[in-house]
Amino acid sequence: MNRITDRICKGLGWSGEEKVTPHGFRTSIAAILDERRNISLDAIKYLLGHRNQENIHYYLRRDQRKINQLRQELTKIEEELDSSLHNDIMVKNNNVMNSLEEGSSIAKEVMFSSITEDVLIKLLESYPKLA
Description:
The protein is mainly α. It has helices at 2-12, 22-35, 41-48, 62-101, 105-114, 117-126. Helix 4 (62-101) packs antiparallel against helix 5 (105-114). The longest helix is centred in the middle third of the chain and has 40 residues, at 62-101.
């Protein structure tokens, strides 16, 4: 089997970390059957020729899959929070800009104390009269 997989890898131009081994195929098939096809562990164990249920966990990366799912969901939450905070800042800045146009000195103090330098630069570019 090693020679066959070596020839396949050579034909595909795979080397180093891209190279696949028979054991790698077994691991990939077991993971696909478990994660995507929801095949029972007993059936996968039978396919791989293992008697002991514990040996199958070397082939399945269930914890890594859960960690990846959690990372994806946490990233989505972060993006939603960033978007929400950005929208809140823009609303506040628009309110402050409206007050500034009316000449309120309190609004100026609020604006300059609550925004970041990047936002301030963008505001000055958009509203040169503020300078």
